[in-house]
């Protein structure tokens, strides 16, 4: 799998071996964030992206390929 980051300058190549992943520093969330990914794979099932709040509110989002379809799952808790 090849993943290109938002600016296109830093590409990573993952071998597809079980447990292969890339980890990045904590992303500082703001009111309006934007994330852009370009990817290419032959896998019909894969985890592409996952992030969570460390269990504080149970917030997370994950981007997966499931049965050859892109799937986004998320939970966002709004504190009033």
Per DSSP, the total helix count is 0
In whole angstroms, how far apart are the ends? 41 Å
Number of strands: 6
The helicity comes to: under 10%
Overall description:
There is one protein chain. A hairpin with a 7-residue loop joins β4 (46-52) and β5 (60-66). With 80 residues, the chain is mainly beta. The N and C termini lie far apart (41 Å). It has one domain (2-75). The protein has a three-stranded antiparallel sheet, with no helix packed on it. A three-stranded antiparallel sheet has the order 4-5-6, with no helix packed on it. Helices cover 0% and strands 38% of the residues. The chain has strands spanning 2-4, 11-13, 38-40, 46-52, 60-66, 69-75. It has no helices and six strands.
Q: Secondary-structure blueprint of this entry?
A:
Layout: E1 2-4, E2 11-13, E3 38-40, E4 46-52, E5 60-66, E6 69-75
Antiparallel strand pairs: 1-2, 1-3, 4-5, 5-6
Summarize the model shown:
Residues 11-80 form the Laminin G domain. With 80 residues, the protein is an all-beta fold.
Keywords:
single chain; 80 residues; mainly beta; 3-stranded antiparallel β-sheet; 0% helix; disordered N terminus
